[in-house]
């Protein structure tokens, strides 16, 4: 990223950094111990308007572009905080913005912008289908003015801490559609009205504090007016938002990498062994320098993807490559940081081990590296479909 590009959001970054300073490592460590949700942090971001960055001004948001949202999330990670508690609100929003009805936008967007409602849960992945989204089994059957939903989702992060869920379900059986991507529909589920009345949420403990859940639908009722766009077109609506999701997650990984690199550099300069700073040793210095190079390369591709997105072009290649390379860069930076700190890298008080666990997720989710390589092989390089 050139200095001029970085400067376009310098003020936003500066203000986000100030906000994050109110939530130091100790805050996150205490939450990590009990797998708690950072309610105060999310509230502060909401009150400052950052989670409404992409909502148009007419609905109470800031009306900013995706690059501003990327700058916000990158800075959150760079300051040692964790945007995973709320980042979905940034990219789920696009489905409602692009495909929601005027009534849905008027009803939900102002309340999301003000913080009255949280849109944090994204119900797509299922235990049996994983990332093979067209094979999902959750079914929504139309009965009069209502859809009756039955099925199960897994890895539905923040379900316990969200008011609304964007849900993808089959409305036409897979064996009755011409293409497997047809017959899927998207719904806005007001979880406040159905929790315990057809909706069950169970948290899943993981190696990082990610507030993930499995959710069960047992004859859950969703009003027909909560269908987003046309019935059967939901897969396309979800796909529309995936490039934005990958660019934003990549930006978080870049922020993580910058945090690790700064931490490692400072420690390498201060830590003295055998009469000299350990950073003087190439075995310590070179892995940090290589991680920095990886981060800058990923940053350049993500920046290109953000520019294409904001021009209205489809940045599939840049979004996928950027997400993969940024996740690999943050992991390389984390690896170098742990190695630089040695035994202290595993001590909770330095926050390195926490961030190390958190950033590892992004080589697996929201899409695995292998599927990104499949996309590049088929859609960019023109080779036969591999699956």
From TrEMBL:
Gene3D superfamilies: Acyl-CoA dehydrogenase/oxidase, N-terminal domain, Butyryl-CoA Dehydrogenase, subunit A, domain 2, Butyryl-CoA Dehydrogenase, subunit A, domain 3. Residues 232-364 form the Acyl-CoA dehydrogenase/oxidase C-terminal domain. It comes from the Bacteria. Residues 7-116 form the Acyl-CoA dehydrogenase/oxidase N-terminal domain. The keyword Oxidoreductase applies. Pfam families: Acyl-CoA_dh_1 (PF00441), Acyl-CoA_dh_M (PF02770), Acyl-CoA_dh_N (PF02771). The keyword Electron transport does not apply. Residues 121-220 form the Acyl-CoA oxidase/dehydrogenase middle domain. Keywords: FAD, Flavoprotein, Oxidoreductase. InterPro entries: Acyl-CoA_DH_CS, Acyl-CoA_Oxase/DH_mid-dom, Acyl-CoA_Oxase/DH_mid-dom_sf, AcylCo_DH-like_C, AcylCo_DH/oxidase_C, AcylCoA_DH/ox_N, AcylCoA_DH/ox_N_sf, AcylCoA_DH/oxidase_NM_dom_sf. Its cofactor is FAD. PANTHER family: ACYL-COA DEHYDROGENASE (PTHR43884), ISOVALERYL-COA DEHYDROGENASE, MITOCHONDRIAL-RELATED (PTHR43884:SF12). Belongs to the acyl-CoA dehydrogenase family. This is Acyl-CoA/acyl-ACP dehydrogenase. It comes from Teichococcus aerophilus.
